[in-house]
């Protein structure tokens, strides 16, 4: 596949080449059935086996305890911003939000329609370039919501927030770092992630939710918006995003073959480590995130001069790199290097940056 280039897109993002190759083969005829994967009924045996394997591998890879449901939903991570408070927050209860970026702000905004909210911390004062160390929780939050990786600003929690009342359950938007490192699911009430960064194509959202929270959800909501509907029907109440679930299954197989989440973490640390090491030494480029908050998934950096940033981005685009333009709210550059991003691509970018820097000095 020599026609492929290095794609640093923040999402939808690069997928493992072997996964794409296998999916391409099965688009025309899935497992020699004579029917393509997108053309199979979700109630038929071939697809039911795919869905079952996707769930089983997800549980195996992440060590998900048996008292959690694994759901494949639609509506993106963005629907979870409202679906969680809609099901679990009431006007007499307070939910605490750690506001570490634009996605966290959106989640907070949606919660306000259903109950009380409390901002336990915010890094907005510095354009979200750090993860706050000081967090002040409300006395007894019903749940605590955080965004484990801030895709736009290039910051990431090293570990779960702690110190809130033990009666609260933890909710995590893990859209942009799910399965990039080992995770102790038992610390969470709900983990959710749109697939298009680390798990598969857009159109499917992974939700891992503890059984008691499924049961506690409001039953006065439209059927499609209740977790129990999807839990009771194994994500097949209506037609699920079959191709997305299939691709996610292939990605789970790939993660397992790479050695699981521990191996993913080592690979991600090595990739991001080399890039930050170069950025720290560079006299032209500077990382934008505070050192202790740096993301292993989205590496944000600037030159400090907009015209130079633009010249650099333009140069990358005519040299086999794509997707390096930073989000408009940060400016500069962003290299998204999720699980599937190849280490060679990081090394090629570093070499290109070195050459660009040398040519300017
Ligand atoms: C991309 C992203 C979202 C939005 O996901 P959709 O699936 O487009 O709704 C939410 N949160 C984070 C952290 C993201 O990176």
* Strand line-up in the sheet with most strands: 2-10-9-8-5-3-4
Which spans of ≥5 residues are poorly predicted at pLDDT below 50?
none
Quaternary status: single chain
Work out the strand percent: 15-25%
Here the CATH topology of the largest domain equals Aspartate Aminotransferase, domain 2
- Supply Rg: 21 Å
In which range does the helix fraction lie? 25-40%
- By DSSP, the count of extended strands is 14
Distance between the termini: 36 Å
Q: Structural class of the secondary structure composition?
A: alpha/beta
Bound ions, cofactors and other small molecules, one mention each: pyridoxal-5'-phosphate
> Mean pLDDT, nearest integer?
98
Largest sheet geometry: 7 strands, mixed
